[in-house]
Amino acid sequence: MRVLVLLAALLCGLPSLAANRCDTAVPTAMAEVGEVRLAYQSVGRVADPTLLLVMGIGGQLIDWPDEVVQALCAQGFRVIRFDNRDAGLSTWVGQAPSANLTYQALRYRLGLEVSAPYGLRDMAGDALGLMDRLGIQRFHVLGASMGGMIAQHLADLAPQRVSSLTLVMTSSGAQGLPAPSPALLALLTRREADSRAQAIEQQADLLAALGSPAVADDRRELLAQARSAYDRAFNPEGVQRQLLAILAEPSRVALLERLQVPTLVVHGTADPLLPVMHGVHVAAHIKGSQLRLIPGLAHRFQAAFKAPLLGAVLPYLAAHRHPVGLATL
User: Fold this and answer.
1) Tens digits of per-residue pLDDT, 119-141?
2) Are strands 162-168 and 263-268 parallel, antiparallel or unpaired?
3) Beta-strand (E) ranges in 152-244?
4) In the record, which residues are listed under signal peptide (predicted)?
5) Which one, of 303, 264, 70, 60, lies nearest residue 148 by Cα?
6) Is 79 left (phi over 0), alpha (psi -120 to 50) or beta?
7) Cβ–Cβ < 8 Å for 304, 215
8) CA atoms of 43 and 27, how far apart (whole Å)
9) How far apart are CA 282 and CA 257, in angstroms?
10) H or E element, residue 82
11) The pTM is what?
12) In this structure, are residues 51 and 317 in contact, taking their beta carbons and an 8 Å threshold?
């Protein structure tokens, strides 16, 4: 087999082999994890250290840009991206939530208890269960937005298994941090679409609102992205349940302060959903963490910011790819 690989390298060139190794057009597999079934993709060599990507509210694994996944894989990682419960092709938990979101959001603002069908720690348990099913003992975690909140719990649940933590555009959930505008929250929770076309327009509106004011979005690209997401899976009730899970979460400051995992926090200065102080607050409460602020970055993976995002994340991951004294499987 080694001879065949060497011959292929000579005939096709090593860059071609690297490109094939990091091909994102891999089949989506399914894993039974406790009470849920998770859809996931594995990109890269099984023998390489694993990097688990955890997506934000309502997001699907396809919302991780292919070129970002390829860049992470090219660093020598096996990259796994998956659909959280209540998103994409993974298990949709149940009926539409009976709780009124506006009322529950008000209770959250007042510091009162919020009811939810499941919590972020349950979602972290899903991610850990996926690693168990795949036989992966140690792994790196990169979480964005709600995915960063889930990643915080994951590192707390299994600190001996998480080699490094990268938290992008996320929050500690502490009271008193700047809140998003009511208009943006309305866009996030608006799901009363009468048709596919209307739902796609609404999603494009949300994507535009989450983008940087310094970047002029191409409406056709936003619509194409919204169309791909809708046609793969459209689950507005799942978004509401995930939002309830966030609102029901108490402050994670105590959790952050006990973390011992090497951590990088990346946040944009123009984030309209989780303003920049959310990222600063997270980094301030994780001992030894690094903070990288990206000027103009908002709350989306826009093309104009992929280079600075990768410029912040790739060197950090490369430095922690093989933890000293630990075997990454």
Assistant:
1) 999 999 999 999 999 999 999 99
2) parallel
3) 162-168
4) 1-18
5) 264
6) beta
7) yes
8) 10
9) 9
10) strand 78-82
11) 0.90
12) yes
